[in-house]
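re: ur question from earlier - yeah i can do the single chain one, its not a big deal. heres the input i used so u can compare w yours
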Amino acid sequence: MSLHHALSAREGKTGMQSPMNPFALYFDLMRLGWESSVVISLRMMKLAAGGVVAKKEAQLMISEKGEAAVMVALASAWGMASGQSFDTVGRKAVAHYRRKVVANRRRLLRR
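and the output i got, formated as C-alpha cells:
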C-alpha cells in the first residue's frame, strides 16, 4: 500500500477516526529515534571504510532522504486536506519513515 493510500484510508468501519492517544505518537517517535541511531552507526562504519561501497552508500542515503521527505510531505498534506487528525497523519508519517529505517538496518546488516 502506498503512503498516499495509507494516509487517505479511514480507520474503522464507521469511517470515524480512533480517539487521539497523546502518548502513541511520542512512543512511535522514540522508537524511530532509537532505530535511526542504529542505522546511523551502521552507515558511519560503512562510510568510514571508504572506497566505492562508501560512495554508493552516501549516494543512496541522500536520494532516500529526499524521496522520503517529499513522499511524507505530499501524503501528509493530502491526509490533512481530507480531514484526518494531526495524530493520524503524524503516526502514519512516522510509520513510513520507520519502514525505511528498518529496511536500511536489514540491508546494512547483511554481508
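Residues 3-17 have pLDDT under 50 and may be disordered. not sure if urs matches, ping me
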